[in-house]
Structure formats: C-alpha cells, structure tokens
C-alpha cells in the first residue's frame, strides 16, 4: 500500500465536498486526510486528498472522481516533484521542570508557542508528513492534551500549474 | 415570467412533448404552468413508474425522458426508477418539488433530502436556490443527461422559487468546466488496435448497451461484415446486431448461451464495445483475464480497466470509433473461425422440456415469428426476462428493453407505457411474471386511461420463479421459502376491472390462438399464461 496525494480542482459549489466524500465511502476507498479551501479564483476550490492504495485503486479513484461533474481537474502530487505541508496545533502538559526542553524541541522544529498557561503550552507547527510525525513522537512523552491537524495540502514544485 | 412558466418554456426549448408525473403540494405552481402548456402530461399511478415510463419513452424515442414528482414521498418514490435508469445509462431529466427554500433543513412536512439521497445514482443533480438559475440549470441538465455516457439528472426546485418572477432567457450553449466527454478515439490507440486485429486468428466483438446508446447499429453491422468478425452481446446489448446477421453469435454471461461463452473463451482477441464487463456478463468467463488481447472501447473512461485488464483502452463514442475502424480495416481471414462457431452453435441442443402447461420458451419463439420487425418488447426481471431475452429474436429494427443493471422488478409494465407513448405506431409487448406485475399493477390503469393497446404476456408460475430456482440450487429442492403468495389475485378479472381485455391460457395450443387474438385487440390486452412452477430458466 502506498500513500498518494491528489490535488483536485472543483467548482466551489455547496454539495461538492459531500459528493466527493460520498464517492469514497460508497466505493470502499479510504480518505486518510482531506483539506479544502478556495483558490485564487473564488469559483474554484482546491482539495488535497491523501489516500492509501495500490495503482489499481488509485486509477479507479481518479477515474471515478473525474466522472463527477463538479470536478475540473485531478493531478497526483508526486513526492519528488511537490511540496506538502500540514499545520498542527498541539497542547502539551508542561511543568516548570520540562518546559525548557519542550521549548527547545519546538525551536529545533521551527514551531511556535502560541499559548501558555501555568501547566500547558500550545504549539503551532507546519511541515510535511515526516516532520510532523517526528515532532509528535518527541512531544508525546510530555503528555499531549489535545491535538488538531488540518490535513495535507500541497502544490507541485516549479513553474507548473495544475490547470496546465 | 413566473419561474414555473419558465421551467415549461425551457422544457419546450428542449423539445419535450411528454412528461410522466404525479402532482403534490410542492409542484403546484409547476402543474399550473403545465396545465396551460401543450406538453402532454401522463398521470402515472406511482412515482416509481414515472421514472420507468420515462425510461421506456427515452429508449423508444432516443430522446431524453422527463418526469416530475412532488417533494418528500413523491421524490423518494422515484428513487428505484432513477437508480434503474442510472445503471442502464438511460437519459432522464427528473424534476422534483422541494419544500419552501426557507424551510429546507427544518424537517418540515414532506421534506426529504433528495439531492443527498440520489447523489450515488444520478449523473448529476441540482438544488435550485435562485430562480434566475433555472434556465441555465435545465440547459445543463439536458446536456449532461444525453451526452457522453447518458444518465439521469435530477433538479430539485423549492416551491416558493417556482412562484418567483424571472427574466426568461434560455442559454444557447453550456460551459461546464468539469464535463467534457471524449468522442474521438485516440489515434495511436486505434492504430495499435488495428495491428492486434490483423494478427488475430480468432477475433470476437462483445457489445453491450453502449452500441444502443450511441445509435451505432449500422456501424457495428458494417464493421463486423467488412472485417468478418463474429459478435456476441450482453443482456443490455440485445438488438445491437440483428440475430439474422451471419456474424451474430448470441448472448454471453450467466444467462447467456453456452456456445457464446465458449466462443469468448476460445477467442484470441476480444473487442469489447460499450459494455461494462459486469459480473453477470462474465460469470462463466473465468478465462477472460488470460493472455487474450482485449481492446476495450467505451465512452466512460472509468469503465475501461475497471473489471478486466485491458491491452488497449480506447475512450470515445462507439459510432465514431467504429467508423474509423471500418475505414482502416481490411477483411480478416476468419472463415475457419466462423465455421467453428457455427458448428458450436449447431451442436447446441435446445432443451425441450415436456410440460402440461405453457412452455414460455416456445411461446416466445412463436410470438417472435408472428410479430413484425418493428416490435418493441419490454421484459421484467426474473425467469420471464431470461425466457424473453433468449427466445424472442431481435431481427430488423426490433427493440428489447429491460432493467439489466439494477434488475428491477416492476419495470416492464411502466416501461411499455413509455415505449408505446413514444412510438404509438409500433407494437409494444410487455413480458412479466406474477411477482413483477404486482409491483406495478396499478399501471394497468395508465394503459387503460390512455388507450394504449399494449399486449401484456404474464407468465404466471405462481412463484417468484427465479428465486425459487436459486433456492433449489443453493439449498436443495423442497426448501423453498417465501417465494409464493398464499393468495394471488385473479389477474383476468383485475385486467377487466381496469378496462382491458384479458384471457387465461394453460396450454401451448391455446396460447397460439390466444396470442393472435391478443395482438389484434384494439386495447390493452393481458394474456395470462399458466406456467409449470418448476419450469427452468435456461
Ligand atoms: C424490486 C425487486 N425485488 C426483488 C428482486 C429479487 N428477485 C429477482 S427475480 C425475482 C422473482 C421474480 O418473480 P416473478 O416476477 O414472478 O417472475 P419469474 O421469475 O417467476 O418469471 C425476485 C424476487 C428484484 N429483482 N427486484
């Protein structure tokens, strides 16, 4: 099983997200992560969907998605030719003893402390899949109170456009 | 202009002259507009039948079928009919009323999320939120329904929006960025396919409903004749090539002809055109994935490579692509291969069971020989469907309509209604079982009310015959459960009560004279044929 990241341009209409999500569940494909937002053109949204599956499944997903009238374009963002990012917010337990260690770790990962209380720190971090998982592994022992991730988003590197 | 009048104007621009529907509170404005128009409205007896009738109409007329239902229960009643049309790629535009736009989402009286519930089996659907969008949406709906791979498109219109005023301006074209069907086959792929064809010793074409959707009958015939390739077909492909063509082989699949399946297995190159290679069609073809070369031609790219590994995929319109092949192909040396197929066919012995009752296979064969070559036959689902598919020969311009994909009981009668209304001059025959007819019995009323002289052949085996047979196979004889009604109605009396002519026959000899009488009737005629409950499908 391989992880694939699909970048999908869709018409920015209500109901599109449910159509796409419905297609995945109905055909038995799993969405690992999904992020969506408007593009520079307010009539068009871009979805980034991460899925796991072999070549057959990936092909089926792409073809079935293409059949949806609101789907304008689909490209696979290949790792070597793309940049991926995800944003996470983590609230960790932090007492006077480990606070410094946590802050140091956050700095190494170029994260930001965005909220502080007497016994917690809330951290903002962006990065690709590996960076985010490495960071969460390191921070876990301190005690993660809450964690939220936006899901992957990505673009192709260089001077290419999905509409090309 | 009132939005409801604008809807009717749009339909007229799309050359709609007949609508199948059922009114209700959420479509009152639309019905008022319809009343003032010259579009014929057929008041069916159940919304499910509206979709089936629109499907029969679409298939017979090759236009897009249109049906209307009210919100909530009216709309949900349509669902089976919409799903049936979706599976068989039948172009429909369905208009449903919705509760007032300000009430949507509040679970008010007769509210149902029909957009959400029909998402999986419409080609596309729309909820109108702005009255001014109506012309654009209707234009798009008809375009989407009928182009590419055809299918049903639903438009949900809140009742208050139907009452708004808009400026009517019907768009001339559509521009849907995400919808650009491919019609032309890829040149390179066609070239590769030609090379494979040339090298083939035992080529075979397998066609499905796609030939019929693409109206590519002539092209298929011309291609098979010019290149000398034999043709098998799926249940949905019945009629794609008339059975009297020298290249006609037969039907494939679990209910197909044994020799057709053999021919598929023996072929070294299979050209699949407009068929989705569904499980029923490939049941006895385990060897399909072996080293055979497979060229798969379909307008829907998602069908190519879905169920079978393809050597050469070609996406595009069957008519276009066949024309390209006709142009480029030279005759192949297939005389040996065709001789072999004819031998296989001849060695196949029709099983002729003795029966004290009517032998449906013989009955359909007899019928096939006495009706003209323009006849339309609609079959329901079950044994009756397979008896019809295998024994009613499609010659000339005959048509065969059935619910192939979803296998929906209750399809035959309303589909026959639609077909007869589309082609009043053609003979229309509805074949149905005692189970299936009771799923749409009320349409006898529609037949009667509209003076449709449809001939209904009811094969009454007092069983849900196909299920009976499956239970016998899976669990052994004598373990049948829930496959017969303790009380079946007197079908002759029911037909008469609806104002149709009717008769019951119990022997083959009786059938022959009764069917002639039925075919001569000026009104709808229900011929109830008593069949041995244990009579087999194949
Ligand atoms: C709406 C629906 N319900 C259930 C079935 C399952 N089913 C398939 S064939 C069949 C029996 C049909 O019986 P009948 O209409 O009497 O026809 P016969 O097989 O006896 O010719 C049934 C119940 C179906 N296809 N469609």
UniProtKB/TrEMBL annotation, chain A:
Keyword Amino-acid biosynthesis: yes
A GO term from the CC aspect: cytosol
UniProt KW Transferase keyword: yes
Record-level GO BP terms: isoleucine biosynthetic process; L-valine biosynthetic process
SUPFAM superfamilies in UniProt: ACT-like (SSF55021)
Pathway membership, UniProt: Amino-acid biosynthesis; L-valine biosynthesis; L-valine from pyruvate: step 1/4; Amino-acid biosynthesis; L-isoleucine biosynthesis; L-isoleucine from 2-oxobutanoate: step 1/4
Highest taxon above the source species: Bacteria
Enzyme class: transferase
Family affiliation: Belongs to the acetolactate synthase small subunit family.
Function: Catalyzes the conversion of 2 pyruvate molecules into acetolactate in the first common step of the biosynthetic pathway of the branched-amino acids such as leucine, isoleucine, and valine.
Subunit structure: Dimer of large and small chains.
Protein name: Acetolactate synthase small subunit
Gene from which this protein is expressed: ilvN
Automatic annotation (TrEMBL), chain B:
Domain Thiamine pyrophosphate enzyme central: 190-324
Record keywords: Amino-acid biosynthesis, Branched-chain amino acid biosynthesis, Magnesium, Metal-binding, Thiamine pyrophosphate, Transferase
E.C. designation(s): 2.2.1.6
PROSITE patterns referenced in this protein's UniProt entry, alphabetically: TPP_ENZYMES (PS00187)
GO BP, one annotated term: L-valine biosynthetic process
Thiamine pyrophosphate enzyme N-terminal TPP-binding domain: residues covered: 1-114
Cofactor(s) listed: Mg(2+); thiamine diphosphate
Keyword Transmembrane helix in record: no
Top EC category: transferase
Reactions listed under catalytic activity: 2 pyruvate + H(+) = (2S)-2-acetolactate + CO2
Cofactor binding, note field: Binds 1 Mg(2+) ion per subunit.
Any GO molecular function: magnesium ion binding
Family as reported in the entry's similarity comment: Belongs to the TPP enzyme family.
Protein's UniProt name: Acetolactate synthase
